[in-house]
Amino acid sequence: MAINLFNDHGVALDKQRFTWKDLVQKPISKLDDDAYTRIRVILMNGIELDALRVEQVLLRMNRDARVQLAQLSRVEHHQATAINWMLSADHSPLETTIAYEQVAIEVTASVAQLEPDPYMAQGFRYALLEDFDHLYRYSALLDRLEGKDANNITQGYTDIVPGRPTTVHHRAPENDLLESYSRDAALATKLHAITLTGGEYQTHDYYMNVGPLFADPVARMLYAEIASVESEHIVHYGSMLNPDESPLEKLMLQQATEVWNYQACAAQETNPRMKALWEQFLDYELGHMQLAIRLFKDLERRDPAEVLGDGNLPAGIEFKSQREFLRKTLVEVPMRKNGTQFVQEDDEAVSSLTYRNHMNSQGSPSQSVSSGYQWTPGTELNRQSAAATEPATV
């Protein structure tokens, strides 16, 4: 279904209501639902939380829109609740971590191929390789602590192999920055950057919350290490956003991002209950979009077409295995950063080398957790079967 941000009005904000039973519904199944259903759940929770974050910041900056922003953020909070509570309780925190990394990999890979700006597309591929390696390190930890095969979560859609080693992800902060997109950039470029910024925020916050809950010292350090990288990714993607955009311009783009993502989720969802939820929230976000457009017109006295063009949405994220693109990216992407530029390893900024050497001077959790680890299908079940068939030694 083609959507136009100006013509499709959805459900008005004052008609959007929830009960507690609306917010807490039957969750998806960890093993029976397709992994891409869980990917969409995690993605859209991150998008909703980022919208809520933006609205709360804008509320502090704009006296004339305070009431509308308060009303809007309440609904965004409830949407995030309904989505996040769809994750079932039989996911361990580490299994949820595996799922988070699969989201980062599959969504970023799709966005990188949709992106029309070559520089921005390079930025997506660059960080993609780091999330790819994080999946490998956490898969080793899952095997070590819970004796589980990460493929039970990824369902074979995503390779579990090393990417750019996590131990070299650590950069001096100035080398995380990118050049921001221009005011006249394609709407697709803006939606892509906002989407991935929200995703990285969510992942960072999750790791910061669950990392201290582990008793295993290597697990605690691994979460600390990768949470630090996720904070780098927030800067990496967040710096793509143009800082010259006005607050209400950012609100419009945030709402457009939600509409764009919900449309892709609704179009590709295989679980009928989740499809109905995506369609409901798509209608809600179209209502939010109309509110943002009115505020932009009334308070800034500007034409929303300056920001949204003709209002037609670009092609959406494809929820399908990106294995071949990932394998190609592993070979082709330059490995390092110097300022806002992508460079080969020998040209990496000296400030990052100094920073990294100090951070790793007492050891690297990501190297320790995967020492001697190689993912094989079945993991502990295969090992147990092999051990059971070996002749006993006397």
Summarize the structure.
This protein has 394 residues and is mainly α. The chain has 15 helices and two strands. The protein is 61% helix and 2% strand.
Q: How would you sum up this structure, described in words?
A:
This protein is mainly alpha-helical and 394 residues long. It is 61% helix and 2% strand. The protein is built from 15 helices and 2 strands. Strands 1-2 form a two-stranded antiparallel sheet. Strand 1 and strand 2 (341-343) form a beta hairpin. The N and C termini lie far apart (70 Å).
In the predicted model, the low-confidence regions spanning at least 5 consecutive residues are 379-394
Spatial strand order of the main sheet:
1-2
Percent range for β-strand residues: under 5%
Oligomeric state: single chain
Distance between the termini: 70 Å
Shape: globular
What is the number of beta strands?
Answer: 2
Largest sheet descriptor: 2 strands, antiparallel
Total count of helical runs of at least 4 residues: 15
**Helical proportion?**
55-70%
Q: How would you classify the helix and strand content by structural class?
A: mainly alpha
Q: Mean pLDDT, nearest integer?
A: 94
Order of helices and strands: HHHHHHHHHHHHEEHHH
- Rg (CA only): 22 Å
